[in-house]
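STRUCTURE:
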């Protein structure tokens, strides 16, 4: 029993580490940028990329592939779509869906940072224009 446990522990320790988002850049302030910003709409309560979202997503992917030195912030938004916890989870699911789609089309995953944003918690969101049911893709300025 002890030998089997040691073998299992050795296998776990030898396994490659789990991949996490790159921490080499920050998305703080990304929502204030105006150039190279793309918006992907989602249906109320949904996190699946719709047919209507394919064209703006393709445009964002094309721009990202054309400038491989730029990082990409993907900001998932959810307005009043349930309670605060539900909204932030939905915003994260939307950001993850877009991030996964971009990586599947050849955008290097280490260039992408996906974050959930909620109007309920964001002091920078103006009450008259809360982002809702969208993902904002921001190509950050070149380093």
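SEQUENCE:
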């Amino acid at each position: 029993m002890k030998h089997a446990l040691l073998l299992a522990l050795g296998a776990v320790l030898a396994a490659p580490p789990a991949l996490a988002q790159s921490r080499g850049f920050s998305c703080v302030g990304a929502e204030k940028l105006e150039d190279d910003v793309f918006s992907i709409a989602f249906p109320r309560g949904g996190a699946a990329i719709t047919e209507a979202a394919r064209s703006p997503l393709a445009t964002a992917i094309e721009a990202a592939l054309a400038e491989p030195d730029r990082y990409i912030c993907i900001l998932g938004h959810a307005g009043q779509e349930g309670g605060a916890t539900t909204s932030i989870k939905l915003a994260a699911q939307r950001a993850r869906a877009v991030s996964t789609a971009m990586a599947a089309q050849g955008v290097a995953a280490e260039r992408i940072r996906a974050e959930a944003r909620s109007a309920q918690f964001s002091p920078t969101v103006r009450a008259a224009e809360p982002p809702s049911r969208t993902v904002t893709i921001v190509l950050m300025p070149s380093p």
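REMARK: Confidence is low (pLDDT under 50) at residues 1-20, 121-130.
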